[in-house]
Design a protein that fits this description.
Elements lengths: L3 E3 L5 E3 L2 E3 L7 H13 L3 E3 L7 H11 L7 E6 L6 H15 L6 E4 L8 H20 L6 E4 L3 H10 L6 E5 L7 H9 L3 E5 L11 H10 L3 H11 L3 E4 L4 H8 L8 H8 L17
Parallel strand pairs: 3-4, 3-10, 4-5, 5-6, 6-7, 7-8, 8-9, 9-10
Antiparallel strand pairs: 1-2
The structure holds NADP nicotinamide-adenine-dinucleotide phosphate (NAP).
NADP nicotinamide-adenine-dinucleotide phosphate binds next to strand 10 and helix 9.
Length: about 280
């Protein structure tokens, strides 16, 4: 069974997420999510830009689970920065998902173009609409994604409601220590995207060696390493076999020496998605 963690708003989030990036609407996706939910997954990670919210919504209905049993996280795309467009985007996501509330809604990427004073104002302006969605109960948890330390500092000084989560790239070979540390200081839970480095970390020799030693798979070692850092891994798999394997990370621990060994890896499997330089 997946453990849960308390957020700074008092709600709980499962400590393992199932991602849906690059999986467009399809019956295959619906059935894969239904099977994952029946297997024990309780946190589905989607985004408007993934164009699969309808499949996520159908899977929740077909799983037979009560709405309250599933944690549904979606993200507001970068095209929606103004107050009104955020409200419209949230409404659209809810309609597509066939839900009357989201468990979590995130600013997908910080705005970073031009002068810092200008982009800081844009981000806090977007956040005001998130605060309204939260106060109206349409969204139970509000958060950010891909915010690095320098995006967070000014943002936190001006936010009326503190973000509860920050979803960032986090995997062996790419751990964004400064951002994780700042989030910890502010009680913001870090959700780690691409915890398997999109599959690339599974071949890192040190991870393969550790997997043999622990009688676990390389994926389980990488996911467990996230948990050792108090980061919630949001992994993705369409394969029932891999989904089952990825659930089996709550029955063992890595030693401090092995955590340190993975921490010391050089930069590996970085997506190249740098918030200050993305084109959107
Ligand atoms: N906030 C953001 O900006 C952002 C950006 C990127 C991603 N994300 C979120 O993070 C999620 C995860 O990222 P990701 O999609 O890059 O996922 P990932 O978990 O790092 O890698 C997924 C790849 O690993 C394979 N895999 C999964 N479990 C495996 C196992 N046990 N053994 C061997 N291979 C395995 C999958 O293939 P199979 O399907 O064959 O298992 C897939 O090819 C996304 O889906 C999305 O929800 C968020």
């Amino acid at each position: 069974m997946i453990a849960t963690v308390k957020l700074n708003n008092g709600l709980t989030i499962p400590s393992l997420g199932l991602g849906t990036w690059q999986l467009p609407e399809s019956e295959e996706l619906v059935q894969s999510l239904v099977s994952a939910l029946q297997m024990g997954y309780r946190y589905i990670d989607t985004a408007a830009i993934y164009e699969n919210e309808a499949s996520v919504g159908r899977a929740i209905v077909q799983s037979g689970l009560h709405r309250k049993e599933v944690f549904v996280l979606s993200k507001c795309w970068a095209a929606n920065r103004s107050y009104d467009s955020v409200l419209r985007a949230a409404e659209e996501s809810l309609r597509t998902l066939q839900l009357d509330y989201l468990d979590a809604y995130l600013i997908h990427w910080p705005y970073t173009k031009g002068d810092p004073l200008a982009w800081q104002s844009v981000n806090i302006g977007t956040w005001r609409a998130f605060e309204r969605l939260y106060e109206e109960g349409l969204v139970k948890t509000i958060g950010v994604s891909n915010f690095q330390m320098h995006h967070l500092v000014s943002f936190l000084a001006r936010a009326n409601i503190k973000p509860a989560v920050n979803q960032i790239e986090f995997h062996p070979g790419f751990m964004q220590k400064n951002t994780v540390q700042l989030c910890r200081q502010h009680d913001i839970k870090v959700l780690g995207w691409s915890p398997l480095g999109h599959g690339s970390v599974l071949d890192i020799p040190q991870i393969v060696e550790m997997a043999k030693r622990y009688e676990k798979s390389p994926a389980q070692i990488a996911l467990r390493w996230c948990l050792e850092h108090n980061v919630i891994p949001v992994t993705r798999s369409l394969s029932a076999k891999h989904q089952e394997e990825n659930l089996e990370i709550f029955d063992f621990k890595l030693t401090a020496e092995d955590v340190a060994l993975i921490d010391a890896l050089p930069i590996t499997a970085f997506s190249g998605l740098e918030p200050d330089h993305v084109s959107f």
